[in-house]
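So, does this match?
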Amino acid sequence: METEHDLMWTRRRFLAGFLGTGTAVAGIGLFSSTASAQPPQQAPPVRDTINGILSFVVPGNDAYSHQQGVATDRPGGVTPGTAESLERTLDQAVAIPMFGPAGITLPGAAGAAVLLNIFATTADPAAAAGPFAAPFANLDHATKAQVFEWLDTDPRFEGFILRFVVNTIPTLAAFAAYSEVSAFDRAQRTTTGRPVGWELSNYAGPSDGWDEVIGYYGGVDKVEA
């Protein structure tokens, strides 16, 4: 039986090889499957990975939340527009090669997907055969937490842009889930309905003011200079 030390050694050896050679990008195709719309052998399963992150941070009533075993009876992080927003943010925030001098140049979202799925298959090799193309999305909620713990504490990331990326992934996911993006028209720059984030946070919506805060305390309605 593999111990935690064995798993850590396997993970670090895998990662060292990934960081050390550009040919490792060919292994990205291992994460594809017929269960996803992602093109096999061409790109990491970014959308499934991103949805796996969103459901982990803010569980809802979607298929990704049910797969992880932690779900609710209302929409959560996996809502229309949220995954696209998080992918776009990661791509813009990490617009440099994530994996250093190895010659591997991936946009932020794709790089994060590769990283999460490598660690996901270390945590649970069976995750590669789940219903989603991304092993990370196939993990249960507790194992996803373990993956993020490993990413947060792995000393090999010190001095790399990966440390910044790892620390921002759950934070940016929360921002996306609680934002207006699920009901926001980017072209018109206006909301098209009530965003899911408002429901999650019990936000009443924009207002010009509230009756209960009109005037001054104790009946004072003006102050003499």
Summary: Residues 4-20 form the longest helix (17 residues). Confidence is low (pLDDT under 50) at residues 1-42.
